[in-house]
Amino acid sequence: MKKALLTGCTGQDGSYLTEFLLAGGYEVHGIKRRSSSLNTDRIDHIYRDVHECRTPFFLHYGDLTDASSLATMLHDIRPDEVYNLGAQSHVKVSFDIPEYTADVVATGTLRLLEAVRRTGLKCRFYQASSSEMFGSAAPPQRESTPFHPRSPYGCAKLFGHSITVNYRESYGAHASSGILFNHESPRRGETFVTRKITRALARIKCGIQSKLYLGNLEARRDWGYAPDYVRAMWLMLQQDTPDDYVVGTGEAHTVREFVELAFERAGLDWKEHVVIDPAYFRPAEVDFLLADCTKARRELGWEPTVTFRELVRIMVDADLDQVERQIAGGLDELRRAAAGVSTRA
Predict the structure, then answer these.
(1) Catalytic site residue 131?
(2) Residue (of 157, 212, 178, 198) closest to 83 by Cα position
(3) Are 146 and 91 in the same domain?
(4) Which one of 19, 81, 132, 260 is the catalytic residue?
(5) Which of 130, 151, 177, 185 is catalytic?
(6) Could you read off the pLDDT of 310-326 as tens digits, one per residue?
(7) Alpha helices for the chain (secondary structure H)
(8) What does pTM read for this prediction?
């Protein structure tokens, strides 16, 4: 049985990748940061299977800012594959906490690569790179497109990407990077724009809130479905030769288009509820990201399976269902929860 070690296993991508690997017969080990509040909701269903002895899934406390914990886990687990998905991944927040973002995203990748090297493991390494590294580069963006990041997050991801290439070339590491464009799902964090839209829409539809505050509606992104993208991660590590791959759909849509389709799905007029708030504009905007994933299609045999319209439908329906279930469980409780989470988050 192959073993995989994941950073960021409690996040959107980590939870889907955990499911994918378990279904493929892997023993999966996830690294979880210590937190004063529970943050395992995306993997709680996997935990239930663990308790019933159906799933070889194990969680370990660790942190990308703590080299010793990384080295200890690698030494004890001795994984065949390592997936580095952990990050402070919110672009707007990275302007507020740039040093922390760099410590986790940039130096954290270096710590993990160095821990792999020093333990002498012959494992395969996946680095979660990002389309934010391209920033203001002219679309479409491919593996050969010069990088021009426009945020501390993008800069930190570029360091992580570059140091992964360096370890591959310097030490012969089987290290591949997936330059993933935006990928979404019902498990997307609630402060990311797509989930912010669908979550607020569900609350508006059910009478819990009335307004949705957004920033730049004209930003264009290449949006795909997260479960498709974790399959691409795995495919990269099955190749004999490590390399870097752009992963996306090859289609770009504006935030405005996402809003329009989402509100249309719920039977509402978005113009009656959406308010543009300058607070949500980035200090340096990224206007247009569009993937040219020819290489991934050709060499990995990877294709996206979910269209943009289907993605919006999946996310809207999931959030509507969640809010309706919460209402069935008690409207007062839902209102208290809504009061505790700013609609401008």
Answers:
(1) no
(2) 178
(3) yes
(4) 132
(5) 130
(6) 999 999 999 999 999 98
(7) 12-23, 44-51, 67-77, 91-96, 98-101, 108-119, 152-171, 193-205, 226-237, 255-266, 294-295, 308-329, 331-340
(8) 0.92
What does the block give as tokens for 9? 């296993």
**Within-domain flag for 51:** yes
CA angle at residue 280 from 152 to 335, to 5 degrees?
120
User: Are both 91 and 206 inside the same structural domain?
Assistant: no
In the DSSP assignment, the letter for residue 140 is S
112, 241: one domain: yes
Catalytic, 132? Answer yes
153 counts as catalytic: yes
Q: CA–CA distance from 229 to each of 46, 165, 248, 313, 343 (Å)?
A: 20, 21, 8, 18, 29
Residues 111 and 241 in one domain: yes
Residue 300 lies in a domain: no
Q: Count structural domains, the chain.
A: 2
Q: Is 296 a domain residue?
A: no
Domain ranges, residue 169: 3-185+223-247
Give 33's strand partners: none
Q: Are residues 257 and 243 in the same domain?
A: no
Cα-based distances in Å from 66 to 10, 71, 106: 18, 9, 13
The residue assigned the tokens 């710590």 is 111
Q: What is the CATH number of the domain that holds 205?
A: 3.90.25.10
The token pair at 271 is: 């113009």
Candidates 16, 26, 153, 245; catalytic one: 153
Q: Find tokens 């839902």 and name the residue.
A: 334
Same-domain status, 144 and 52: yes
On whether residue 299 sits in a domain, the answer given is no
Tell me whether residue 339 is exposed, middle or buried, using C-beta atoms within 10 angstroms of its C-beta: 0 to 12, 13 to 18, 19 or more: exposed
Q: In whole angstroms, give the CA distance from residue 123 to residue 3.
A: 10
**Given the structure tokens 């059910």, which residue do they identify?**
206
Q: What confidence tens digit (pLDDT) does each residue in 236-272 have?
A: 999 999 999 999 999 999 999 999 999 999 999 999 9
